[in-house]
């Protein structure tokens, strides 16, 4: 029994060990360079490969910096392939629990071509695999992953720019032309490095994160801190021409923190470039009336077989495949591929994705908006962004529409567009991210304005009266703030009344009636300035009306001030402009005569200040003096006067002085002339 338990424990332990081992890649240093290129990277009888060489680290224990790797059933994306590293590849298998940091103090040099390709000046520990080949097709491609210990999950800020470098250098054999680097970020000339492909999660800035795979934990198939996703190196080539390719990786600056490139086994493809995929998403689908010719012509090919979505197309065995309109997208869209057969043991292939631009069906081409920008002048704002999805019945979600003021304009209109042609304007919609498939589409913008008078109104109402507010005829509905719904309403108090008017196009506008209260004035006071060179009167009134003023009941003025008034009696008329009533009051302007002529002719025979009693100055006292200050006359009665005599004797012609003492304490002094 004891033996059985020990045996079972051993079986369980071995089973667990095998599962753990299968989580990591394995490496094999026993392959020759020729075997790695012909049997692993290319793995096809179609290849014509020569001059294969490899160079790497000269480790004392015989370890290599290049060799074969096996995915070993792990989650690593490649099941097998070639590994080129800046350190021992024996350190490449997981788990990721140690730092690969080989190649120090051993005179392992860098690579000048790599320096030039990446603009480096000090590479170390270069591993280089290079060979010549003659392509059968016009395109080569292969898959790779870049892994590095320099993908630190918790770096210091000064470590963010540390990066090893690698390049896939291609040129025609025997020419002096510069190398072309194929190890670049798709669609750019940017080399793939640690600081050009990096994801989020650290203090270091992201860079082309869509091509970054992950920062690795302990349990990872390789012993590297991070890696890119599977990338494709590719280039157009000339069939039958010999090329030289140099695959090189090196440390930059020093030997620290190893890196590696993994080349997918069998991924080196000598194919034909059938052109860019024709996709709606990329803006280049096949247009409705376009004829597409796919050309797979290859030197030395014996036959061709075209396929759609992997299914052979009957009788399509020529070098070219022609797709002619009219198209049936449901039957014709998909992946078109071609097998190019050079011999019974040599077949290459190429593929292209094709989608067809749908025929757009017009749903609406006239768009109406109410005139809402103040005056009803035929101009308003149109939200073009909300109009765009309404134009077509079947607009693909990724199609972009922009609007222009003419069919040939290249300047898009502002999405919040105010029409520039009164009432009705034609603009043009263009599909801007699909090239050449669609014409411009004329779109009409119509502004619906009110033709009736909708200006605001100010009215006056007399106290106690009722007036009518007329919103105007011809509207579909009326909605007053008084909750009434008729064209005309009656009001009996001042205030602000608004009505919302709607026409038969469902446009609404608000009209405001301001009702101002009015009524007869109350004269509170008449402020008189007299005994001056410019006698005046200010009429002070109270009331809610709008008033005008007159001294004759005929000629009115808006100001309550009257100036340059002669002495005498006046009647002021205060009229409400809104015909609510008229009020009058009498006032007097006082002044003294500047001279008198006591000659008995009945004109100016006496000197007298009139109307003192009309102003309430009955008790005023007037004292008259000659020029020497002698008292001549004292007047205590408002009806009294001076006739130019003193004790019955006529006084001579000269100036005389007076003092008028009013009951309110005011004293007026002046002089006048006696003329005989």
- Average per-residue pLDDT, rounded, comes to 90
Helical residues, percent: under 10%
Structural class: mainly beta
Main sheet record: 9 strands, antiparallel
Tally of DSSP β-strands: 45
The total domain count is 6
Provide a count of the helices: 5
- What is the molecular shape? elongated
Strand residues, percent: 35-45%
Calculate the terminal CA-CA distance, rounded to whole Å. Answer: 168 Å
Low-confidence stretches: 1-21
Gyration radius over CA? 54 Å
Spell out the blueprint of helices and strands:
Blueprint: H1 2-21, E1 26-28, H2 33-42, E2 49-55, E3 66-70, E4 80-85, H3 112-118, E5 123-133, E6 139-148, E7 165-172, E8 180-181, E9 212-215, E10 226-228, E11 231-236, E12 243-252, E13 259-264, E14 269-271, E15 292-295, E16 303-308, E17 311-312, E18 320-323, H4 329-332, E19 334-343, E20 346-354, E21 366-370, E22 381-383, H5 384-391, E23 401-404, E24 416-418, E25 424-431, E26 441-448, E27 457-462, E28 467-470, E29 477-480, E30 488-491, E31 495-502, E32 508-518, E33 522-529, E34 536-542, E35 547-550, E36 561-562, E37 568-576, E38 582-589, E39 595-596, E40 621-625, E41 631-635, E42 645-646, E43 649-650, E44 654-661, E45 667-674
Parallel strand pairs: 21-26, 27-32, 39-45
Antiparallel strand pairs: 1-3, 2-5, 3-4, 4-13, 5-12, 6-10, 6-11, 6-13, 6-14, 7-8, 7-12, 9-10, 15-18, 16-17, 16-19, 19-20, 22-24, 23-25, 25-26, 28-30, 29-31, 31-32, 33-34, 34-36, 35-37, 37-38, 40-41, 40-44, 42-43, 44-45
């Amino acid at each position: 029994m004891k033996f059985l338990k020990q045996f079972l424990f051993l079986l369980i332990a071995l089973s667990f060990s095998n599962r753990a081992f299968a989580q990591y890649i394995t490496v094999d240093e026993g392959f020759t360079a020729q075997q790695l290129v012909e049997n692993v990277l290319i793995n096809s009888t179609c290849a014509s490969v020569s001059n294969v060489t490899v160079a790497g680290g000269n480790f004392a224990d015989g370890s290599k910096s290049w060799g074969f790797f096996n995915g070993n059933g792990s989650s690593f994306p490649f099941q097998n392939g070639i590994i080129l590293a800046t350190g021992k590849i024996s350190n490449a298998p997981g788990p990721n629990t140690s730092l690969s940091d080989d190649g120090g103090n051993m005179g392992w040099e860098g690579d000048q071509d790599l320096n030039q390709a990446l603009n480096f000046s000090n590479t170390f520990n270069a591993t280089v695999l290079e060979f010549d080949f003659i392509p059968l097709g016009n395109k080569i491609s292969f898959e790779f992953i870049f892994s590095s210990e320099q993908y630190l999950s918790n770096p210091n800020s000064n470590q963010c720019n540390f990066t090893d470098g690698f390049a896939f250098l291609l040129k025609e054999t025997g020419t002096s032309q510069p190398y072309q680097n194929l190890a670049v970020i798709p669609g750019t000339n940017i080399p793939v490095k640690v600081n050009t492909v990096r994801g989020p999660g650290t203090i270091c800035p992201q860079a082309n994160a869509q091509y970054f795979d992950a920062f690795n934990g302990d349990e990872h198939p390789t012993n590297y801190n991070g890696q890119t996703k599977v990338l494709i190196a590719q280039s157009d080539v000339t069939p039958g021409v010999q090329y030289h390719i140099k695959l090189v990786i090196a440390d930059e600056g020093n030997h620290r923190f190893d890196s590696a490139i993994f080349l997918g086994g069998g991924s080196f493809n000598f194919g034909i470039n059938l052109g860019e995929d024709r996709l709606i998403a990329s803006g280049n689908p096949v247009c409705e009336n376009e004829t597409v010719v796919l050309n797979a012509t290859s030197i030395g090919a014996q036959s061709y077989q075209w396929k759609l979505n992997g299914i052979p197309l009957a009788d399509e065995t020529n070098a070219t495949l022609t797709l002619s309109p009219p198209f049936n997208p449901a039957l014709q869209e998909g992946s078109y591929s071609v097998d190019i057969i050079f011999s019974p043991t040599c077949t290459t292939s190429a593929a292209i994705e094709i989608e067809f631009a749908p025929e757009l069906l017009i749903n609406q081409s006239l768009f109406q908006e109410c005139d809402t920008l103040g005056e009803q002048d035929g101009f308003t704002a149109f939200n073009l962004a909300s109009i765009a999805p309404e134009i077509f019945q079947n607009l693909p979600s990724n199609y972009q529409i922009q609007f222009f003021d003419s069919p040939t304009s290249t300047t898009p209109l502002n999405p919040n567009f105010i029409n520039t042609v009164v009432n009705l304007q034609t603009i043009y919609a263009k599909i801007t991210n699909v090239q050449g498939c669609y014409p411009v589409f004329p779109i009409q913008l119509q502004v619906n304005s009110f033709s009736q008078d909708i200006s605001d109104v100010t009215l006056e109402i007399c106290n106690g009266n009722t007036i009518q507010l007329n919103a105007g005829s011809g509207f579909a509905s009326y909605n007053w703030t008084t909750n009434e719904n008729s064209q005309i309403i009656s009001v009996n108090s001042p205030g602000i009344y608004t009505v919302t008017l709607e026409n038969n196009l469902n446009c609404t506008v608000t009209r405001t009636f301001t009702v101002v209260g009015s009524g007869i004035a109350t004269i509170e006071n008449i402020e008189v300035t007299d005994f001056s060179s410019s006698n005046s009167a200010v009429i002070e009134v109270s009331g809610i009306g709008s008033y005008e003023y007159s001294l004759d009941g005929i000629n009115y003025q808006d100001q309550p001030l009257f100036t340059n008034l002669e002495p005498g009696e006046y009647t002021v008329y205060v009229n409400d402009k809104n015909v609510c009533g008229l009020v009058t009051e009498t006032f007097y302007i006082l002044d003294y005569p500047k001279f008198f002529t006591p000659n008995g002719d009945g004109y100016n025979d006496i000197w007298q200040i009139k109307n003192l009693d009309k102003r309430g100055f009955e008790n005023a006292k007037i004292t008259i003096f000659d020029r020497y200050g002698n008292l001549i006359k004292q007047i205590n009665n408002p009806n009294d006067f001076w006739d130019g005599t003193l004790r019955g004797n006529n006084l001579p012609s000269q100036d005389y002085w007076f003092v008028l003492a009013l009951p309110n304490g005011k004293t007026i002094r002046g002089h006048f002339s006696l003329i005989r």
